[in-house]
Design a protein that fits this description.
It contains 4 helices and no strands. The chain has 106 residues and is mainly α. Among the domains are: 31 residues, no CATH class; 29 residues. The longest helix has 23 residues. The radius of gyration is 27 Å and the shape is elongated.
Length: 106
């Protein structure tokens, strides 16, 4: 759980620290947290920071990109057909008879 912390820092140091944090792709808060972890030896990493930089984006022609593109097309095609034909998706049914007949609520 994160908590808010107020610090008093020399204004010249603050501007240098902000530039450094930005150059490292960090917020000033993240930089201070990293420095506090280093100083205290408490190196419990968050889920996000443990995965940061481990993924590379899929690009056109990449098998992962093609797979995602196909999955998206499979999902969107029925919706596109309904819109083109002016139809609406069927209403969800409350309960279905397990044996495949009409609603058991009738």
């Amino acid at each position: 759980m994160k908590r808010k912390l107020t610090l008093n820092v020399d204004e010249n140091l603050l501007s240098v620290a902000k530039r450094y944090a930005k150059s490292q792709g960090l917020s000033l808060s993240s930089l201070v947290e990293c420095l506090l972890r280093d100083a205290t030896g408490h190196h419990e990493t968050s889920f996000a920071s443990s995965w940061r930089g481990k993924f590379r984006p899929a690009e056109c022609g990449d098998a992962r990109y093609d797979s995602i593109k196909q999955e998206t097309a499979d999902i969107e095609e029925p919706r596109r057909l309904l819109r083109r034909e002016g139809g609406q998706p069927p209403e969800p049914r409350d309960r279905l008879d397990i044996e495949g007949g009409e609603d058991s609520a009738s």
